[in-house]
Amino acid sequence: EIRLAKEKLFDYIILGAGSAGCVLANRLSENPALNVHVLEAGPMDHKLMIHIPAGVYNVYKDPSINWNYNSESEPGCDGRQIQLPRGKVLGGSSSINSMVYMRGHPQDYDRWAQAPGLEDWGYAHCLPYFKRCESSDRGENEWRGGHGPLGVARGHLENPLFDALWEAGQQSGQGTTEDLNGYKPEGIARLDSTSKNGRRSSAAVAHLKPALVRPNLSLETGALVNRILIENKRAVGVEYVSRDNTCELRASKAVIVCCGAIKTPQLLMLSGIGPADYLKSMDIGPELDLPGVGQNLQDHLTVITGFECTQPVTLHHLTQPLSKLRVGVQWLLTRSGIGASNIWEMGGMVYGNTEAAHPNLQYHFTPVYSEWAGRKILLYPGYQLNCDQLRPLSRGEVKLHSADPRDRPAAHFNYLSHPQDLEELVEALKVMQDILTQPAFDGFRGKRITPAPEITSDRELADYVRATADTDYHPSGTCKMGSDDQAVVDSELRVHGIDGLRVVDASVMPTIVSGNLNAPTQMIAERAADYLLGKPPLSPEHPHFHFEDHSTT
Q: Does residue 28 sit in helix, strand or coil?
């Protein structure tokens, strides 16, 4: 199944078998004339719980398949270090995430296209690549793909609390929609997940594993890259450690960095690409002064509202041994039941204020209330609504703790450093309270668990945000596309000033999109493959979208 690097020269070396790396490995190796090698620091995805959708909380913090980073101390969040799980396994974070498939709003991409040189990154140009990537069980239409490698399925689990949220969307005026990735990208909806036939459709399962039968594609796991080898301002290969041996490989066409928004800037800086004065201060000899490396860090912060449930309809029994056994047996025999659900099957895109051009808040809803106790999850008879602020104005940076590749990167998010971000998360708590106190929930609603019932004023809500807000695991932007002095890559994802080096992952996003990042990351990789192969881009598509102007006139 796994072929190690017997040769020393490849056309392309891909660093990281995560969401982007798996897509690229598949697309590039479709050309039999190209030799492609993939290096992944983590192991194979053999753990069964990776592939059972409801098993997400068994793998989500598992140190054997997770980098388990922390942020640096965050002043805006009461000095807390925010936990930052990142996949360290075949498939990367697509093997440990909650599987929500969300593209973001079309206007996100149209804003990218307003920057000089990024005109071809508008939604009309991105849509055909989203469609090429996916095979949606909703069927192919103007907005959705039906023949791509990535399995995408609409939520199917029946639960009266899901029905209540749908009704509350109508009662509250927050609205409903049939498809947040389709005609109407706002309102309460059944969410899509990256799953197929009851199994997780990780990037490894969808893209990489089927391609490994090709003789021109090889994969090496347990390979930690030390640095990219640069000669005369060209990337010529990599140095990495495998089984305690230091190895070198060479690339004739390109080295492609797909390590994510936290590790990619770390690797570039370890290779001498970044702010020159800072690199010197870390005893790293600069190869190229590129000040934007590690800057522009963005993420989605999330806050939680939870209520006790007065009816026996929640999923809190899932931690009980007999219940787990029943769920597991049903999944193993039929690939159905609760085991085939990612649990976060309902959500929405909503407005927290009238100034937002399009929904600025995102819901994820689950018919159970949960708390973490270390690496163990505790479930209670309740229901929980998480709400992300989608377009934060705070910006952070990724730096180094040391020049040791094994050391964790220093992620300074600067959460809530912009006052508008705190305001919008306070608004998030208010719109969550509004929807969860609609008549649709009257037959289910017990006491509010969090925020505590006595927390009601704006000041108290702001304190609650600072004390409890957490990441929704969407770091991005640290090697952004563009042509300004902070840009790291151009519109075709080539690193400015170094030939033969590209970055393809969420770090290239100029601004974070309004939704989960797994789908956009795979779309970016689909586009990058065409750039690398010299193929003409897919023709832009212009389907009609529902759009309500909620801004004040």
A: helix
CA–CA gap between residue 489 and residue 494 (Å, rounded): 5
3-class SS shares of the chain: helix, strand, coil, % to 5: 30, 25, 45
Is the Cα dihedral 494, 145, 93, 244 positive or negative?
negative
Nearest to 449 by CA among 296, 307, 311, 331: 307
Which of 159, 130, 261, 151 lies closest to 196, judged by CA? 151
* Tens digits of residue pLDDT in 52-106: 999 888 888 889 999 999 999 999 999 999 999 999 999 999 999 999 999 999 9
Query: 492-524 burial, b if ≥16 CB within 10 A, otherwise e?
Result: ebbbbebebbbbbbbbbbbbbbbbbbbbbbbbb
CA distance 21 to 28: 10
Q: Are 182 and 1 in contact (CB under 8 A)?
A: no
Residues 6+ apart with CB under 8 A from 152: 101, 134, 135, 136, 137, 138, 192, 193, 194, 195, 196, 201
Point out which residues pair with 377 in neighbouring strands: 372
CB-based contact 462:426 (threshold 8 Å):
yes
Catalytic annotation on 474? yes
Comparing C-alpha atoms, which of 478, 487, 476, 395 is closest to residue 117? 487
Distance separating alpha carbons of residues 278 and 503, to the nearest angstrom: 21
Render pLDDT for 336-376 as a digit per residue (tens, 0 to 9): 999 999 999 999 999 999 999 999 999 999 999 999 887 78
Rounded to the nearest angstrom, the gap between the alpha carbon of residue 525 and the centroid of all alpha carbons in its chain is 13
Contacts of 258 (CB under 8 A, 6+ apart): 14, 15, 16, 17, 18, 20, 21, 24, 264, 503, 504, 505, 525
Mean per-residue pLDDT of the chain:
95
In this prediction the pTM is: 0.97
Please report how the helices 123-133 and 518-533 are oriented relative to each other, as an axis angle in degrees rounded to 10.
100
Which residues partner with 363 through β-bridges?
Answer: 348, 387
Point out the catalytic residue in the list 147, 401, 474, 550: 474
3-state secondary structure (DSSP) of residue 14: strand
Token look-up 């912060």 returns 301
- Report how far residue 515's alpha carbon sits from residue 100's, in angstroms, rounded to the nearest whole number: 9
Tell me the pLDDT band of 324, cut-offs 50, 70 and 90. Answer: confident
- Contact present, 203 and 90 (Cβ < 8 Å): no
Q: Give 126-130 contacts, CB < 8 A, sequence gap 24+.
A: 126/523, 126/527, 127/540, 127/541, 127/543, 128/538, 128/539, 128/540, 128/541, 129/523, 129/526, 129/527, 129/538, 130/103, 130/181, 130/519, 130/523
Do the bridges between strand 369-373 and strand 376-380 make them parallel or antiparallel, or are there none, so unpaired? antiparallel
User: What is the average pLDDT across 293-298?
Assistant: 98
What residue type is assigned to position 396 of the chain?
Answer: G
